């Protein structure tokens, strides 16, 4: 019964994917129709869609990592000279979280396989499968391996979090210029009913989009804060990012 429900749910979402190629602007009222199984750099499944849609029965702990530990290994093709920046990023995050969540390079048990041979920077959201094996996290070389902020951003997706500007309360903190967004990317601006609102909203969160996200031709910025200031690309985590993770993983 449950599988039938999930199947129908996925089918309905896939049928409603809403793309207007090459156009400017998103209709806010049609935004829910734009939800798909890939929102920018996040690969999603039915559990994530339940989170976004606010379905009853969604378990916020479903995708937490066992023992608060994210194990990762490098794919054999991962560039050797870029392993260090990933290791440093993971050590910094572990230290910043005071060990609440640990990012450990290890081949034992279920883990993240860090690869760079596919296009773009992307991750799944949280721990997918507690039975064994691995899940991919892609950091294209060199674009995704310049900034520790990008590496940490993808690993925080893998830890179980979506984008800050997807929070249901985001309109209190940012102004979105709907008419300037590339219509192919309207889905990147959906809100999520069950995303974390446990910490103060900060536009300098490493999980927040910058102002220059997905403009259509002839435009440059799609979002500003409430003081009309542009939001830069964020190169590192802030205390609110750490608090958000600690809250889900039940640390002080
Ligand atoms: Zn992201």
Automatic annotation (TrEMBL):
<dbReference type="GO" id="GO:0004222">
    <property type="term" value="F:metalloendopeptidase activity"/>
</dbReference>
<dbReference type="GO" id="GO:0008270">
    <property type="term" value="F:zinc ion binding"/>
</dbReference>
<keyword id="KW-0862">Zinc</keyword>
<protein>
    <recommendedName>
        <fullName>Metalloendopeptidase</fullName>
        <ecNumber>3.4.24.-</ecNumber>
    </recommendedName>
</protein>
<keyword id="KW-0732">Signal</keyword>
<keyword id="KW-0479">Metal-binding</keyword>
<keyword id="KW-0645">Protease</keyword>
<feature type="binding site">
    <location>
        <position position="153"/>
    </location>
    <ligand>
        <name>Zn(2+)</name>
    </ligand>
</feature>
<feature type="binding site">
    <location>
        <position position="163"/>
    </location>
    <ligand>
        <name>Zn(2+)</name>
    </ligand>
</feature>
<keyword id="KW-0482">Metalloprotease</keyword>
<feature type="binding site">
    <location>
        <position position="157"/>
    </location>
    <ligand>
        <name>Zn(2+)</name>
    </ligand>
</feature>
<keyword id="KW-0378">Hydrolase</keyword>
<feature type="domain" description="Peptidase M12A">
    <location>
        <begin position="56"/>
        <end position="252"/>
    </location>
</feature>
<feature type="active site">
    <location>
        <position position="154"/>
    </location>
</feature>
<feature type="signal peptide">
    <location>
        <begin position="1"/>
        <end position="21"/>
    </location>
</feature>
<dbReference type="Pfam" id="PF01400">
    <property type="entry name" value="Astacin"/>
</dbReference>
<dbReference type="InterPro" id="IPR006026">
    <property type="entry name" value="Peptidase_Metallo"/>
</dbReference>
<dbReference type="InterPro" id="IPR024079">
    <property type="entry name" value="MetalloPept_cat_dom_sf"/>
</dbReference>
<dbReference type="InterPro" id="IPR001506">
    <property type="entry name" value="Peptidase_M12A"/>
</dbReference>
<dbReference type="GO" id="GO:0006508">
    <property type="term" value="P:proteolysis"/>
</dbReference>
């Amino acid at each position: 019964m449950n599988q039938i429900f999930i199947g129908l749910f996925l089918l309905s979402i896939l049928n409603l994917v809403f793309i207007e190629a090459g156009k400017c602007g998103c209709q806010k009222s049609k935004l829910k129709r734009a939800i798909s199984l890939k929102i920018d750099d996040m690969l999603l499944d039915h559990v994530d869609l339940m989170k976004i849609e606010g379905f009853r029965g969604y378990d916020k702990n479903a995708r937490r990592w066992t023992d608060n530990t994210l194990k990762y290994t490098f794919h054999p093709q991962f560039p050797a000279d870029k392993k260090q920046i990933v290791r440093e990023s993971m050590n910094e995050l572990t230290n910043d979280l005071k060990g609440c969540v640990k990012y450990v390079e290890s081949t034992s048990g279920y883990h993240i396989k860090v690869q760079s041979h596919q296009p773009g920077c992307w991750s799944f959201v949280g721990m997918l499968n507690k039975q064994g094996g691995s899940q991919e996290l892609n950091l294209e070389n060199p674009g995704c391996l310049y900034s520790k902020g990008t590496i940490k951003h993808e690993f925080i997706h893998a830890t179980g979090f979506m984008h800050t500007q997807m929070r249901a309360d985001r309109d209190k903190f940012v102004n979105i210029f709907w008419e300037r967004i590339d219509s192919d990317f309207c889905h990147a601006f959906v809100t999520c009913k069950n995303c974390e609102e446990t910490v103060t909203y900060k536009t300098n969160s490493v999980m927040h989009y910058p102002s220059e996200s997905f403009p259509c031709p002839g435009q440059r910025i799609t979002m500003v804060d409430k003081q009309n200031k542009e939001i830069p690309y964020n190169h590192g985590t802030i205390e609110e990012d750490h608090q958000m993770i600690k809250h889900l993983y039940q640390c002080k």
